[in-house]
Design brief:
The complex is a heterodimer. Helices cover 76% and strands 0% of the residues of chain A. Chain A is mostly helical. In chain A, helix 3 crosses helix 10, helix 6 packs across helix 23 (471-488) and helix 21 (419-438) packs antiparallel against helix 22 (448-465). Chain B has one domain. The chains are: A mainly alpha, B mainly alpha.
Chain lengths: 503, 62
């Protein structure tokens, strides 16, 4: 494929995406929940596609294929465990949604601050999320950089790709906040699922069909079909990778914030099931890409080059290769813009508004909009550092975000949880994970991915037990859930509407 | 049994996702080894989620 073909494709994609983003506007959003939550009125179909696009980023098509290339089938297991972890939405989703409606929460951190009756909890969760998610965004940007550079033999440089993705992400966020982000996400997700499946089909055909591919793997790379396999997926490494990702749907605010957005529980169900079906196909396709690259190009210099090599190969018609490449770039953008919006909402709602009391919604929104490009530029700077294997770095982010998990679970299931416990857990675990990564990521032979959940749980439970819970806020929080979910269960909307004024 | 209790079946599948490939399937270097196991686990997770969230439909739109 030629460089001009790539640039033209990017231009066409941008015209369509900008068109969709502009169409998604529904008048100026002047409230925080309007801009960041789509007024809690998002439908199930768009939510499902957008949830998928936000979760599955450049990591999936470049990173997971690379991980399969380097470590074999263990990459599939790791991803399936993450995938199973999204079932947490089936349990926690309605509860998030109910308290979101009852108390008007915009961010998951605001929810925790309210539940534990301490603003510092909200502030700590927001700041910790930034510390881990900005590098995670950088990983997505780096994915775009590697991809464009790999597919054009360096004609489009790493830096050009990274800068372009950053600018597009800022732009999509600005047009209509979460609405434009979700609609452009949906475009990207639909395009990708079709194009990437087609690529997998063509490549596998080219390699002699499913039996041909797996025959080659069984003969030439038999270790890749088992775990521990070629060595990357020892049980300890596998646990270290998969445990943080198992909790992804709760620990990562850019997806847990989505639980506030569906217009109804029916929409939430569509979001969850839609995501699972999409994610299942996407996972298999990415793993098959990695396997195909291993069968076709066994001697690549870096595993991250598996996807670019495959797309630039003779198996894939140039037009399809370019479509997928644009799709991967859009995938990175769709993840970054969601993260930027979420972090911006957290910084304005839970840091700025907590430091400066009595700030009205308009002012908070303005602050959020100012913060968006700042976050993007920080991610850009990290991406320029060109850190190595994409998947490993993004897991560093997940290990850190596990710090929030016990506080979130405790918020709904443990009345004895306290603000001090939540603070100690979030701050202590974040510091612990950072220290682990700074010192080689191994303590008694185990990585931060395993230690994170242990340390955060011990801190949350231990400190909570020696401090006093705030009974009134706990009761109000849990009663709101019971009321919101119980009341709606069998009664029609009209009869329940006048009662809706909890808390 | 309440539908939400079936979430425990999901957690059981997750446990098996760790146990089976690292014990019984370590020497099955074919497509019908860990590859098939984890693929089927994914499908079971989807089916369980469809079942667990069926009650969500009963909530009225708002």
């Amino acid at each position: 494929m030629t460089e001009s073909m790539i640039w033209w494709s990017i231009a066409i994609y941008l015209v369509i995406a900008v068109g969709i983003a502009v169409l998604s506007r529904q008048g100026p959003a002047e409230s925080m929940s309007g801009y960041f939550l789509g007024n809690r009125q998002m439908n199930g179909f768009v939510s499902a596609l957008s949830y998928s696009a936000t979760t599955y980023s450049a990591f999936m098509m470049v990173g997971l294929a690379g991980l399969t290339y380097a470590g074999g089938v263990g990459a599939l297991g790791f991803e399936i465990i993450y995938f199973a972890g999204v079932s947490l939405v089936a349990i926690f989703g309605p509860k998030f949604w109910a308290v979101g409606k009852a108390f008007g929460f915009v961010t998951p951190s605001e929810m925790l601050g309210h539940r534990y009756n301490h603003k510092h909890v909200a502030t700590a969760v927001s700041v910790a999320s930034c510390i881990f998610l900005i590098p995670y965004s950088a990983v997505q940007l780096a994915g775009v950089g590697y991809l464009l550079q790999g597919m054009t033999d360096g004609a489009i440089t790493f830096t050009t790709g990274v800068v372009m993705a950053t600018v597009i992400a800022i732009f999509f966020s600005y047009i209509a906040g979460i609405r434009s982000v979700m609609w452009t996400d949906s475009l990207q997700a639909l395009m990708m699922i079709v194009a990437s499946t087609l690529v997998a089909f063509l490549v596998i055909q080219g390699l002699g069909g499913f039996s041909g591919l797996f025959g080659t793997l069984a003969t030439d790379h038999s270790a890749s079909l088992t775990v521990p396999g070629p060595g990357l997926f020892s049980l300890v490494t596998f646990l270290g990778l998969s445990i943080p990702w198992f909790f992804f749907s709760l620990s990562n605010p850019q997806v847990s914030q989505r639980l506030f957005m569906p217009s109804s529980l029916r929409s939430m169900r569509q979001m969850l099931i839609g995501f699972l079906v999409f994610g299942f196909i996407y996972t298999l396709v990415s793993v098959l890409w990695g396997f195909s690259a291993l069968a076709a190009f066994p001697g690549l210099e870096r595993a991250d080059l598996a996807t670019p090599s495959l797309l630039a190969s003779d198996f894939v018609p140039p037009v399809l290769g370019v479509i997928v490449m644009i799709g991967i770039m859009a995938a990175a953008v769709s993840t970054i813009d969601s993260i930027m919006l979420t972090l911006a909402s957290m910084l304005s709602r839970d840091v700025y508004a907590n430091l400066k009391p009595n700030v009205d919604e308009k002012r908070q929104l303005l602050m959020g909009k100012i913060v968006i490009p700042v976050i993007a530029l920080m991610a850009l700077a990290f991406a320029e550092l060109q850190l190595d294997l994409i998947a490993v770095l993004s897991v560093a982010a997940s290990s850190g975000l596990v710090a929030m998990v016990p506080s979130i679970i405790g918020a709904f299931y443990w009345k004895r949880g306290t603000a001090a416990g939540a603070l100690a857990s979030v701050l202590g675990t974040s510091a612990f994970v950072l220290l682990m990564y700074a010192t080689g990521n191994s303590l008694f032979g185990m990585p931060a991915g395993i230690w994170g959940i242990i340390v955060s749980t011990v801190l949350f439970v231990g400190v909570s037990l020696v401090t006093k819970p705030h009974q009134a806020s706990t009761d109000a929080f849990l009663n709101a859930i019971a009321e919101e979910l119980g009341r709606r269960k069998s009664k029609p909307a009209i009869s329940s509407a006048p009662q809706k004024a909890p808390a | 049994m309440k539908r939400s209790k079936w979430i425990w079946a999901v957690w059981a599948v997750v446990l098996l996702c760790y146990l089976v490939p690292y014990t019984f399937l370590t020497n099955v270097a074919m497509w019908y080894g860990s590859f098939l196991f984890w693929t089927c686990a994914g499908l079971v997770v989807i089916a369980l989620n469809i079942y667990i969230t069926k009650d969500f439909e009963e909530h009225s739109n708002d």
